[in-house]
Design brief:
The structure is a homodimer. Chain A is an alpha+beta fold. Chain A has helices at about 20-35, 50-55, 60-70, 100-105, 125-130, 160-165, 170-175, 180-185, 205-210; strands spanning about 75-80, 80-85, 90-95, 110-120, 140-150, 150-160, 190-200, 220-225, 230-240, 245-250. Chain A binds a DNA duplex (21 and 21 nucleotides) through helix 3.
Chain lengths: ~250, ~250
DNA sequence: GAGCATTTGTGCGTATGTATG
DNA sequence: ACATACATACGCACAAATGCT
């Protein structure tokens, strides 16, 4: 038994045929090693082949364990590169005056935005009601990817009534800040009324945009913003990379 | 080609070797059928064997697709029984006066609680700081499963300073309501200060308690409650079944 | 309760595709 | 071009949970 590396904490001691799946025992072993500091945040983990040799199981079995760890947010798997221990998360404050840039700068990180898509579409039933317009009326749809220190944090889809915000597309083409564009449309301030929060696994597009694994959940929020007079300005559907943000609600 | 059931919408037309994984094409096909109403909420889906025959792929490939759908919250898979289309969700309001029972009753559902564990443990660093006590001081730990209409919704782990709430264990043994027990300890009212929200896949224990699949995310909240004088009453760590609740924040 | 069929869960072996460096 | 490492897919076998007889 000669130690040939730093990963020989448990050479091979799985309980077979005892009610606990092998992949789960492996997942627990690796999880314990991460928690115990054997693998530091950002560090590269052994390859699947190495792990399957170490635990004396098929590579599929190791993969099942790694997928679980990835979904739980402990590791990040990258095709062709390897698997890595997960790193830190950013706090994202939800409140009546939620603004992405302020929020990120408060964390001493550099905010950044990229408009992915701008389109004019007819309002379907639910959206029309939320916006207080008639069904089928034109809506400006803006899809935007927001980043902190260059890393994607959230994809937001905004819906503005076209009647009032028809100039938005041109404004956003010049400056990707939504707050600035709204100000130019005569809405210098707005407040968030309600936010609904759920979680689910991402669609492939979301995973791609957020540069996040498909097995890592996204936090999904549905929010309604109003102007000072109480008139609905927009309805936003945002998807946050759960591995990189933590939503903070203050009462 | 004789139709022998209601599931022959796409007999077998997958694009092999074209960049899109087979399991993903299958997932999309089933997702479209659910969205289109071919499979109604709660209805049983074809078995894996049937689907693998229909799409002319291996059962593993179908399973991969179904796991994705389960994680996305569209279906629910039960060993030995089959797979089912997912059903409705409950709104759960987060605010300064968050109370589980009120919250659930507002939705015309019957709230219910079950104390899983009560213990006295020493406070580790982070917890001690949040509670405003010294590290190592005794803390009453209460773990509780809360249900709506008999279905598990959230597992909460509460931490109270033992010095002030030493009688909690006995009180909870009689009535599982935490609000009532606190009132008996001289805290008739309390408010939630901050709530941190994240999402991740559940641990096996959480999945078991919430009667939820391991591939369905849980919404995780960390909250701090204070009494009217501003003194911290407890720190709560709650895990919500993302498939059954939606958190609602009002500003 | 025992026995059995059905259905999902786990695991192996193998082969090939695709991204990275 | 090449080696490495993760991703997809097939086929087989058996385990475990469920429901029915």
């Amino acid at each position: 038994m000669t130690a040939d590396g730093p990963h020989q904490l448990t050479p091979a001691s799985l309980a077979r045929r005892q009610g606990v799946a092998l992949w789960r025992q492996i997942q627990q072993a690796i999880e314990a090693e991460i928690a115990g500091g054997s693998h530091k945040p950002g560090a590269r983990l052994p390859t699947e082949a190495e792990l399957s040799a170490r635990f004396a199981v098929n590579r599929h079995t190791v993969r099942r364990a790694m997928e679980e760890l990835e979904g739980r947010g402990l590791v990040r798997i990258e095709q062709g590169r390897g698997s890595f221990v997960a790193e830190d998360v950013v706090d994202y404050r939800l409140g009546p005056r939620t603004r992405f840039s302020e929020n990120i700068r408060r964390q001493n990180r550099e905010p950044n935005g990229r408009i992915l898509r701008v389109a004019e579409v007819p309002a379907e039933a639910g959206l029309a009601e939320a916006l207080g317009i008639r069904r089928g009326r034109a809506v400006i749809l803006v899809e935007r990817l927001a980043l902190a220190d260059g890393r994607p944090v959230v994809v937001g889809t905004h819906h503005f009534p076209a009647a009032r915000f028809g100039q938005l597309p041109e404004l956003l083409a010049q400056d990707p800040s939504i707050t600035a564009a709204l100000a130019a449309c005569g809405v210098p301030d707005y407040r968030r009324k309600v936010t609904r929060i759920t979680a689910r696994l991402p669609t492939p597009e979301e995973a791609e945009l957020l540069q996040q694994s498909r097995s890592r959940p996204v936090l999904v929020t549905e929010a309604v913003n109003t102007d000072p007079a109480g008139v609905v300005v927009d309805v936003t559907h945002a998807r946050y990379a759960a591995g990189r943000v933590q939503l903070v609600v203050e009462s």
